[in-house]
Amino acid sequence: MAVRRLCFLLALALISPAPAQELRGHGGPVRAVAVSADGRFAMTGSFDQSAILWSLADGTADAVLRFHQGAVNAVVAVPGLGFATGAEDGRIALWRGEGAEPLRVLEGHKGPIAALAASLDGGLLASASWDETVRVTSLADGTARVLEGHKGPVNGVAVLPGGSIVSAGYDATLRIWPVDSGPERIIALPTPLNGVVVAPDGEIAVAAADGRLRLFGPDGEARGEIAVGETPLIALAISADGATIAAGGLRGQVALVDRRTRGIRATLVGPGLPVWSLAFLPDGRQMLSGGADRLVRRWNALTGEHVGTVVPRAGTDVLAAFQGERGAEIYRACAACHTLTPSDGNRAGPTLHGLFGRRIASAPGYAYSDAFKAMDIVWTKETVAKLFEIGPTAYTPGTKMPEQTIGSAQDRQALVDWLEKVTK
User: What CATH number is given to the structural domain containing 385?
Assistant: First the structure.
């Protein structure tokens, strides 16, 4: 009998494929990940401007959704609906199933959306934006309540069990907004905040730039802090039962924190690149992470071990061959959003392959803003240098490109000379 049972289990293992341990498909860093309440599907968002709907049973991509004009920074599962995505273009798209077009689009933010949260009943959707506001939208009638007060980008938002909203900002404040229109409670902290989650009992966890996870009661009273690492925490998730908090940082490690003991139970050791997004599966036994290597990895959330036989590996440094070249050093600030070769494709920004001599807004496969399409610029060494001399906002108004300038004329020349060499 025992032998027959063993044979049956072996046969079942052979005909039932194990869940895929890596989800591959994005052309840029994976900025957001969320899992459906039944654990069957995940949706991811990327700097490559796409969202992908995945079947978690076999790791296949059911749909690649290209709606947003900018990096998809936030994804949330909405009970009774499907998923919502928020992006650099300030828009929120609601998705049901595999449809190529969103079921509905919410607008109103004046800057990139950084985070989304849904109420437990799926009736409210909260969005945090770099326009310094939080919007709370009723999905029943589309009315929105705008929460103003943060003095800088709002990086995180969550919905408390009673319906109050909690937000975390770059201005180093945690804010709790009551259900009615009364004033918010402001908790000032010593460092910028990058994310927030809420447990079923209302406890609040905040990811901070000093590498610490801070815990608060639903009334804002401090309950403790946990030193997770030396670099900023940039990703945060909590299991459905509230037992485990996952906090990830710039160096790629993710700490699994036991909320009851306030201790780190395990550490997920990834490829050493930034982890931008985390999500637990509904039973809390597994979780997904998305990061700078463009992959979504699956982990055992109890032991911290990588699921499957693939050993996490460091990403290839495409600039290693140019060590010592000043132009390559300057370009590192651009590498998260732009690629250099046609095989690597577009990310948050278009590929720079074939840049010189190309008319603005003409790279194949990239969704440019209407403002860019209307401009009459041809990219030359002179125009690229001018872009970084006066900044993208002044030179290309309406751009989604982060504002940055290069003050040194020598450095601008080194960059354009190097780009001319490597983008042919």
Answer: 1.10.760.10
Q: Are residues 292 and 260 in the same domain?
A: yes
Q: Give the residue-averaged pLDDT of 24-47.
A: 93
Residue 402 burial by Cβ neighbours in a 10 Å radius (0-12, 13-18, 19+): middle
Asked if 122 and 197 sit in the same domain, the reply is: yes
Is 385 part of any domain? yes
| Side-chain half-sphere CA neighbours of 414 within 13 A | 16
DSSP state of 227: E
What domain range is 206 assigned to? 18-300
How many residues does this entry show for the chain?
424
What was the pLDDT predicted at 423? 92
Q: Which of 181, 187, 256 is nearest to 217 (CA)?
A: 187
Model pLDDT, residue 348? 61
- In sequence order, what DSSP letters do the residues of 310-374 get, joined into one string? PPP-PPP-TTGGGTT-HHHHHHGGGTTT--SSTTT--SSS---TT-TTPBTT-STT----HHHHT
**418 vs 99: which has the higher pLDDT:** 418
pLDDT tens per residue across span 373-423 = 889 999 999 999 999 999 887 898 876 665 578 889 999 999 999 999 999
Q: What would the mean pLDDT of 285-300 be, rounded to a whole number? A: 92
Residue 80, CB-side half-sphere exposure with 13 Å CA sphere: 10
Q: Is the pLDDT of residue 195 over 70?
A: yes
**pLDDT tier for residue 336 given thresholds of 50, 70 and 90:** low
Report, as an integer, the average pLDDT of 327-336: 80
Is residue 294 within 8 Å of residue 27, measured between CB atoms? yes
User: How many angstroms separate the CA atoms of 354 and 60, rounded?
Assistant: 32
Mean per-residue pLDDT over the chain, rounded: 88
Three-state secondary structure of 272-317: CCCEEEEEECCCCCEEEEEECCCCEEEEECCCCCECCCCCCCCCCC
Rounded to whole angstroms, what are the CA distances from 71 to 130, 131, 371, 421? 13, 16, 17, 28
Spatial separation of the C-alpha atoms in residues 300 and 39, rounded to whole Å: 15
Let me know whether 285 and 325 are in one domain.
no
The reported pTM is 0.74
Cβ-contact 199, 259 below 8 angstroms: yes
